[in-house]
Write a structure and sequence with these properties.
mainly alpha; Serine Threonine Protein Phosphatase 5, Tetratricopeptide repeat
């Protein structure tokens, strides 16, 4: 990070960022930043930050976690190596600057400039975006640079940032959301407010506030095992969040090759590296006659089929969805001492919402629920079944790696040895330039504070 990572992307509009990023060969090319201009305005920074976030999540974050949770199969090349846990610090040298330089540092600049100019809407949105990407990153790595991470300018010169503790960062994330919400509710939004510059919500302050509650719901649910109060908090936050799939937090990509969805790019540029039909997820869905199979079949694009939902040129990168919140409600209800019947209502609604989003016919939804829509009587068994269905709904979302670690469902068999990785490694660049601050970790330990 710091001066060595300072982003040249900070003043580029979203389209230019995507056009540049599309030229990367995933898992291979080095991240190269162009020269930055001296100043930027929030209307230029916001679409850049949103595109960078979506590219980072829809790119390497998604690919690594899809392989580790066996939603995808590593068929060839690097993907095959990673699928069999051949992961070393150098593997993450591209993902780290995508996260810190292109996304978080640009977002920090967005917040700083918005606050200085009194642009409350931009400042609020910037903080919700910061909270979201920090939540995803903490749950991948644990301890991370934050409090001193964005002070690498000449006037501050912190070139070796310390690492904040993961559990403390959860509190920081919640605080970012609280401040961001207050700014979004401000009666004085400032002389510059986002409209079309906001690709995710079009400047809709109420939608961003709902997204903030969804992030806080995740934070609480992650800590709810054996903690009914955290489960109750999750339910409270969910109630203030999305009311339908129309509220989904997602980034919708364009219809040209220079603004394409990252998974579409990967299949275009690296055909055969990752395979869907051979994955554990695909096998279980086929065995269950799951009507969503075709919508998740990324490989169908090889044959010119247009049924897949996630591998079209303009497929969305989903951040948090309505169906995820319904699954969360089902789990939190049980962890808060609620009945299986109450949880089952949320569970069935979650499956229905996911299937409707994917274009499944109502008759097929009804048939699937008849066979798979009943939860078992025991709390632990019911949570396991909820998680096994949420595993499908969280297809290609890094949150699925959190779900699997928290619940142990579905049951996965290690591809190599007798352990499945439970975290990512810090990149070689950090070990080279910031070694005194980097925590000592392996792929298996220490586990995250909520991973019990």
């Amino acid at each position: 990070m710091k001066l060595r990572y300072k982003a040249g992307l900070m003043v580029m509009v979203s389209g230019l960022l995507v056009a540049t990023s599309c030229k990367k060969s995933f898992f291979t090319d080095q991240n190269v930043n162009p020269n930055a201009l001296a100043t930027a305005t929030p209307d230029l920074l916001l679409p850049t930050v949103e595109a960078a976030l979506a590219y980072t999540q829809g790119g390497d974050e998604s690919r690594f976690t899809a392989l580790l949770t066996q939603q995808m199969f590593g068929a060839n090349s690097q993907s095959q190596t990673y699928y069999n846990y051949g992961l070393n610090p150098g593997v993450f040298d591209n993902l780290w600057p995508d996260l810190y330089t292109s996304t978080l540092e640009n977002d920090y600049d967005l917040i700083r400039i918005a606050d200085k100019g009194g642009y409350a809407r931009y400042g609020g949105i910037g903080r919700i975006l910061m909270a979201y990407q920090m939540q995803v990153a903490v749950d991948l790595w644990g301890d991370l640079p934050y409090s001193t991470a964005f002070k690498g300018n000449a006037d501050q010169a912190i070139l070796h940032p310390t690492y904040d503790k993961a559990q403390g960062l959860y509190d920081t994330i919640a605080s970012l959301i609280n401040v961001g919400t207050a700014l979004l509710q401000s009666a004085n939004p400032g002389s510059l407010v986002p409209t079309t510059q906001d690709v995710i919500y079009g400047g809709d302050a109420a939608a961003w506030i709902k997204f903030g509650h969804a992030i806080k719901a995740r934070l609480a649910l992650h800590q709810s095992k054996g903690n009914a109060q955290m489960a109750a908090t999750a339910l409270t936050e969910i109630a203030a969040s999305f009311g339908s799939s129309a509220d989904n937090a997602q980034y919708v990509w364009g219809t040209t090759e220079t603004s394409a969805n990252p998974w579409y790019q990967f299949y275009r540029d690296r055909p055969g590296d990752q395979d869907w039909p051979e994955s554990t997820l695909a096998g279980s869905m086929a065995a269950d006659n799951d009507p969503r199979y075709g919508a998740l079949d990324l490989d169908s694009s090889k044959n010119g089929a247009a049924v897949n939902y996630y591998n079209q040129i303009n497929s969305p990168t989903e951040l948090i969805t309505y169906e995820e919140l319904l699954f969360m409600s089902a789990e939190a209800t049980l962890r808060n001492g609620g009945t299986v019947a109450a949880a089952q209502a949320f569970y069935q609604a979650a499956i229905t919402a996911n299937m409707k989003k994917l274009g499944v016919a109502q008759a097929d939804i009804d048939a699937y629920l008849l066979t798979h829509g009943t939860l078992p009587a025991g709390t632990d068994a019911a949570i396991a079944k909820i998680a096994s269905e949420e595993y499908i709904a969280l297809f290609l979302n890094p949150e699925v790696f959190v779900l699997w670690r928290r619940t142990g469902s579905p049951v996965l068999t290690s591809t190599t040895g007798n352990q499945i990785p439970r975290r990512l490694l810090y990149p070689q660049s950090e070990l080279n330039f910031n070694a005194s601050n980097v925590p000592s970790v392996t792929l298996y330990a220490p586990t995250l504070f909520w991973d019990k």
